[in-house]
Amino acid sequence: MRKSFLVLMILLVVSVSIFAKVTITAAVWSWDLEKYKKIAAEFTKLYPDIEVQFVVNEPDVNGFLTAQVSAKKPLPDVIVQSWEALPYPVSQGWIYPVDEFLKNDPDIKYVPKALKEAFMYNNKTYALPERLHFQGIYLNLDLLKKLNLTKPPYEWSVDMFKTYLRRSTTREYSGINHLWDFDNVMAAVLNKNTTFWSFNPSKWEFDLVNGGWLPAIKLQKELKSIPGLVSDDLKNDELRNKGQMDDYQKKFGKDADAFRESKVLMGLHGTWDWSWIRTLPWNFDFYPLPLDPKIGLRFPVHVNYAFMTSTTKYPKEAFLFLKFLTYDPRGVVARLRIDNANGVENGWNIDWFIPATMHPDVIKYFDTLKIPDGVKWLLKKLDKAVRVDMWKTVPGWDQATWDVIFPISEKVRKGEVQPEVVAAETQEKANKIIKEAWAEFSKKLAEVEKKFPEIRKQVEGK
Length: 462
Known about the structure:
Blueprint: H1 2-19, E1 22-28, H2 33-46, E2 50-56, H3 61-70, E3 78-82, H4 87-91, H5 99-102, H6 113-116, E4 120-121, E5 124-125, E6 128-140, H7 141-146, H8 158-167, E7 174-176, H9 182-186, E8 199-200, E9 205-206, H10 213-224, H11 237-241, H12 247-252, E10 264-270, H13 274-277, E11 284-287, E12 299-308, H14 315-326, H15 329-340, E13 344-345, E14 348-349, H16 360-366, H17 373-380, E15 385-387, H18 397-413, H19 419-460
Pfam families: SBP_bac_1
Protein name: Extracellular solute-binding protein
């Protein structure tokens, strides 16, 4: 009898351990909490033995992680959608590299190389792309028709772009609303080796001399030199403050919003502007920035990322949720459906996002959304995207750009200095900062890599 009782108890313990739920935690932004609860509900339909609970990462991701560690509180298993500087949590040893889970995963092949390797240090993957934003041109199709211009192809050249801008610049209309930051982002388009502000990610240094910076500045200057082509260049706050009319008001009206009032052919914006772009009272499409035919299609993309923490007790389960959020086609489509359920306004989807995978199931569903055709076209060309949000991954980026390159760029834009004259000296100063920051980060990274096995042994109780 005693023996039978012991056998029964052992079977009971084993059955509980097999069927017990694993609970993982995920940190989300407060405004996204309800949406991610719905995503988690879809996840548990596929993985009923994994429960997802949420905490809010206030005031920001890195600040939240720091506060948790300082208070000696456990870190969440998964950090959802961050756009902050990744080197900080990496250097603190808070992130679990996920390469062991990516190996032999059939779905990862649909994530373009540039995105898959975007968050790697020392050949280790510390985060995965979750949500993308394209930066480009919103083209006014109604005004295009009114001006008797045909719709250009998505792979339009710089020369074609200039032609459309010139032909749409009249006494009544302007070609584009603004060219702020145009030179910086075009540096990623007009050179096959450089990205934003002419940074070469392969060499991990700025190349203002031979990269895309100089041709981008030349193009920007050419466009701004044409009277009336850039509508916002006609604004003059000094005159307005004196109660006088500036050229913008004289051309478009005293209280005019020329872009909204369909008096400007193009708007230089990103998909992150969708909340107000979708309210525009005219038909539009989204276009990539124009290309150099000698280089081919390269379009700027911003990448928000997610990761799992080094202290998770359930790495396999945490990764399943991380994958569900990032490149699992079932998870991506489920999330798109959740956004799609929020409805349509003015003929457009109110909510949607650009996924980081080119999986056929994802593309098929993405094509059904009521969003600009150009965005759908670009997802099919995602392997041609070039990351421009390098501040998320490059140590020392802010200091190098804002303290060194930005002040020079402002002088160049004002015509105070010639870019060719200052390029070499400026890149040398900026690269010195990048080199020193990378050296410091590398030391911390080496310690992190050394301690990671110890952290896992403690967590796993081995």
